[in-house]
Write a structure and sequence with these properties.
430 residues; mainly alpha; 3-stranded antiparallel β-sheet; 19 helices; 3 strands; 71% helix; transmembrane; Rod shape-determining protein RodA; membrane
């Protein structure tokens, strides 16, 4: 049996099937959300659905290229790919095009490319390479700092564009680190900081500091009382308390000086920070409009939906960005609860399949890569769905394989099919 035939048999065809099902259903909904004249051909490049077909076609070429490259290439050149990814983000400061207030794209004529979509795959490769190194021990503080630096360098550059939604996705990597043995207290620290941030905005820093002091002193007393000989733990608790108070004091500065106005308005809307009903209503009309219209559109679909191309909210352009960030509203209105459930099932099936195959990897590089892909896809999927049904504020995170756009589709395709290539070679010698 030839080497090519053996490789074809090893490929995870179920993941590929799920990929094409999601891409296909996504295109059907992009067509429905953007078509204005059914007499125009589906390949018309003046229409979004025509452009998306081109993106899908080029994605197939990408898939062939990715699967043709030797699996060892991705591990061997991961550091170089990561550096190229960082340079592409840095280059935006000089050559980037500003669209909707963010300098996140390179423009060549009418064609635009968003490097942050490809930086995710570069970061996954670099992190997998570092964690799979025999000298790396994630329980050692030095190696933890290096892993954090690999993860945080791209989002820092992305925030300079600024693009908070794309930067937020990198939080998904910390679940991968936790799977590989990162001490759980880092997750608790992260959750605690988020909680302190929200509480401080809601009730003010004075009350938050008082509550933090009381809770911290109680914890220190318990540690000191029960483990008197372990002074290191007491010192750590005191340091954490001082750091928490310092963070609380910095919240207002972060909120009013680092966050953009539209970020502040969204927090104001979700947390109910604005007391003036007139100002609150103005913010609600500006930043709550998308979510309200999205919820109305999805709710109007009922159990079976109104039918393809029969969505009145979709056809009436009530939901802004309906072919990108809010594409799921078209599914909810035209396909109803049943169609929405099918789409969610397909995403969950793909995620579980990736996790299952990742756990089977004999090579640590492939395993870390697989878990990273699953984490990124889950983060996008969960936040986007939560956003369109009102659980999360609008942050500009697209739905993988569904939302309109070449950079997003190509980026997710590269992410997934590098893992499919690695998985197909899992029983080979490395």
């Amino acid at each position: 049996m030839s080497r090519e035939v053996k490789f074809v048999k090893k490929i995870d065809w179920l993941s590929i099937l799920l990929y094409f099902l999601l891409v296909g259903i996504g295109w059907i909904n992009i067509y429905s959300a953007s078509v204005t004249d059914t007499s125009i051909g589906i390949f018309d490049m003046t229409q979004l659905y025509g452009k998306q077909l081109v993106f899908i076609s080029t994605s197939i070429l990408l898939i062939i290229l990715i699967l043709s490259v030797e699996a060892k290439f991705y591990e061997r050149f991961s550091s170089i790919i990561y550096i190229i990814g960082l340079l592409s983000l840095l280059g935006l400061m000089v050559f980037g095009k500003n669209i909707n207030g963010a300098t996140s794209w390179y423009a060549i004529g009418s064609f635009t490319l968003q490097p942050s979509e490809f930086a995710k795959a570069a970061t996954v490769l670099a992190l997998a390479k570092f964690l799979s190194d025999i000298q790396t021990n994630i329980n050692v503080f030095r190696d933890q700092l290096i892993a954090f630096a690999i993860i945080l360098a791209p989002p820092v550059l992305i925030m300079l564009q600024p693009d908070a939604g794309s930067a937020m996705v990198y939080l998904a990597f910390f679940f991968v680190l936790y799977r590989e043995g990162l001490p759980s207290f880092y997750l608790w620290i992260g959750l605690s900081l988020v909680l302190l941030f929200i509480i401080t905005l809601k009730v003010g820093y004075i009350y938050t500091i008082i509550a933090t002091l009381i809770l911290g002193l109680v914890c220190i007393f318990i540690i000191f009382k029960k483990v008197l000989k372990r002074r290191r733990k007491t010192t750590l608790a005191l340091t954490s308390l001082v750091a928490a108070i310092g963070f609380v004091l910095a919240v207002n500065y972060i909120f009013y000086n680092i966050f953009q106005q539209h970020h502040r308005d969204r927090f104001t809307l979700v947390l109910g920070l604005e007391k003036d009903p007139v100002k609150l209503e103005k913010i609600r009309k500006t930043f709550g409009f998308n979510t309200n219209q999205s919820e109305i559109a999805i709710g109007s679909g009922g159990f079976w939906g109104k039918g393809w191309q029969k969505g009145t909210r979709t056809k009436g352009d009530f939901v802004p960005e309906q072919d990108t960030d809010y594409i799921f509203t078209t599914v909810g209105e035209e396909w109803g609860f049943v169609g929405s459930s099918v789409v969610i099932f397909l995403f969950i099936a793909l995620l579980l399949r990736i996790l299952h195959r990742a756990e089977q990897q004999k090579n640590k590089f492939s395993r870390v890569y697989g878990y990273s892909v699953a984490a990124i896809l889950f983060f996008h999927f969960a936040i986007n769905i939560g956003m369109v049904i009102g659980l999360f504020p609008t942050v500009g995170i697209p739905l993988p394989f569904f939302s309109y756009g070449g950079s997003g589709l190509w980026g997710f395709t590269i992410l997934l099919f590098i893992f499919i290539k690695l998985d197909a070679n899992r029983i080979n010698e490395w």
